[in-house]
Write a structure and sequence with these properties.
Order of helices and strands: EHHEEHH
Number of strands: 3
Strand order of the largest sheet: 1-3-2
Distance between the termini: 46 Å
Radius of gyration: 14 Å
Largest sheet: 3 strands, antiparallel
Helix content: 40-55%
Oligomer: single chain
Number of helices: 4
């Protein structure tokens, strides 16, 4: 049985991302924040599914992706 709550590393792997990229998407709101069980952060698998469904396809570029790309270009 697949658990409903996933720890950070498992949540990142569930959506096929590295932990650093997952953290970025959580920080900018493209992935949900964790729920708290005392001091333990746990991501809701159903919320991850919904957030993943909202990510753009390769052909689509979201406004936030455009802003992030422009910001990254400015750092180079």
């Amino acid at each position: 049985m697949m658990p409903r709550g996933l720890r950070r590393r498992d949540a990142a792997a569930y959506v096929a991302l590295g932990v650093s990229k997952f953290d970025q998407l959580v920080a900018d709101g493209r992935m949900p924040p964790p729920k708290k069980a005392d001091k333990v952060s746990v991501w809701d698998r159903e919320q991850l599914d919904e957030a993943f469904d909202r990510l753009p396809t390769k052909e689509e570029t979201s406004e936030i992706d455009q802003r992030l790309d422009a910001f990254a270009d400015g750092l180079r």
